[in-house]
């Protein structure tokens, strides 16, 4: 134990982590990187990630080198922070807290360190990303070991944990989102953005003007950028600036010569190009994060690539989605829950004690714990949680529990559901809510008419307010008595 603490204190802090390589060094020095040599990009990488996710007790980051058909040094990293410990370190939090404590600690730190005030990017003239540049006929996206993750996938996905950077044509604001990108040709790569996502709002504005959309995409980056890009920040937030504030150092960028868009200067691989309104190619299917193939093969937009940049010996950052909670990026839960909690505060919902996302439910199980103060408090909390950006997308169940229930403890939540909710009284249904073609429960008829909405169930699993004081008492020792016992007997019991 003492030894781990010593090595931890010499680790790079989030402020010192400038890129994916620094992060690999941090994870490696904690013994949390599994190095694998000689795997095949065709199915083996994905199969191995799935094996580790579902059949190993450890949750290491996976670094693949000497990938079949590719030169040594052309690597892929998956699971950059699957474990709670790595996620805590990525965020600069103490690793020995419970999930709900981590979420609360992150919120407090974000407030005190100003992560809510964004940090503008630091624009440079040069950066490691420019070590290798290809234009025109020299472009060949197949030079990178893009995986075909799963047997039924329609192709090789260079972009899974990617960053797609676009500009709003109306007001010039920059957005960064993670949207999947399938190789289509040496200079063409598919781009799938779900309706409602900010990149899609930008795309639709360009197309409505009859213009093509300029795009930068990045395929290997500091995991904090991946986090910012993929965890549902509000529309007005520039994700690059959020990541800078979260790290406590501005993100260094160069200005892309083709599009004028920012490119993280320490990224591993980046492209610039354009999405044309009337250029479509078959995309998918893709084994998605819900654990299904829901969006099937369709005609979809792609990026016509005009420039490729990469570092020497580039490292792709990949995310192999699998049956939940596979392919986990644990940090998503911490930030997602913190964002919902912040939104509840901003909406004026009092006495929130915790927020959680049930990991096996992908996005579909949002839990809020409150100390109920008045009749209607629980429904209010549910509606606010399920309406904010971080809690609205592809949701299904919003569960409200009392303050003695840990919203990140599945057993606690199920116990509350079973003993404090009454289906005929505790549930309400909201219709026409925000979902996506990726939702496996959208019926064929709905799909045919392009209706990608679903419904939400609010479950109030708090003790009913009007008679909460008469609710049968909980059995077992009180938390106070448990603390005394732990003090007295803990050493014998838990050594
Ligand atoms: C690994 C991963 C892959 C994702 N792939 C897609 C995708 O292919 N298309 C999409 O629209 N959203 C995808 N998402 C979700 C978006 O990245 C996420 O909602 C993000 O916050 C969108 O940013 P935006 O709100 O700026 O659009 C993915 C998320 C993750 C974590
Ligand atoms: Mn956004």
Output the CATH class name of the largest domain.
Answer: Mainly Beta
- Binned, the helix content reads 25-40%
Approximate shape = globular
**Uncertain runs:** 1-6
Structural domain count: 3
User: Beta-strand level of the residues, as a percent range?
Assistant: 15-25%
- The CATH superfamily of the largest domain appears as Electron Transport, Fmn-binding Protein, Chain A
Mind telling me which CATH architecture of the largest domain this is? Roll
The kinds of small molecule bound in this structure are: flavin mononucleotide, manganese (II) ion
CATH topology of the largest domain: Pnp Oxidase, Chain A
Q: Helical stretch count?
A: 15
Mean pLDDT: 94
Distance between the termini: 13 Å
Query: What summary fits the major beta sheet?
Result: 9 strands, antiparallel
Class inferred from helices and paired strands = alpha+beta
Question: What is the rounded Rg?
Answer: 23 Å
Describe the structure.
It is a single chain. With 495 residues, the protein is an alpha+beta fold. It has 3 domains: 2-97, no CATH class; 112-318, Electron Transport, Fmn-binding Protein, Chain A (Pnp Oxidase, Chain A); 347-479, UbiD C-terminal domain-like (3-Layer(aba) Sandwich). The chain has helices spanning 2-9, 20-29, 44-55, 84-91, 99-112, 198-208, 223-230, 239-247, 331-346, 377-385, 389-392, 410-420, 423-426, 444-448, 479-494; strands at 33-37, 61-65, 75-78, 122-124, 132-135, 157-159, 163-167, 174-177, 181-185, 188-190, 213-218, 252-255, 262-264, 269-283, 298-310, 315-318, 352-357, 365-370, 397-401, 427-434, 453-461. Strands 5, 6, 7, 8, 9, 10, 11, 14 and 15 form a 9-stranded antiparallel β-sheet that branches. A 5-stranded mixed β-sheet has the order 17-18-19-21-20. A 4-stranded mixed β-sheet has the order 1-2-3-16, with helices on one face. Strand 9 (181-185) and strand 10 form a beta hairpin. Helix 5 (99-112) packs across helix 9 and helix 7 crosses helix 8 (239-247). The longest helix has 16 residues, at 331-346. The model is unreliable at 1-6 (pLDDT under 50). The site of flavin mononucleotide has 19 residues, from strand 8 and helix 6.
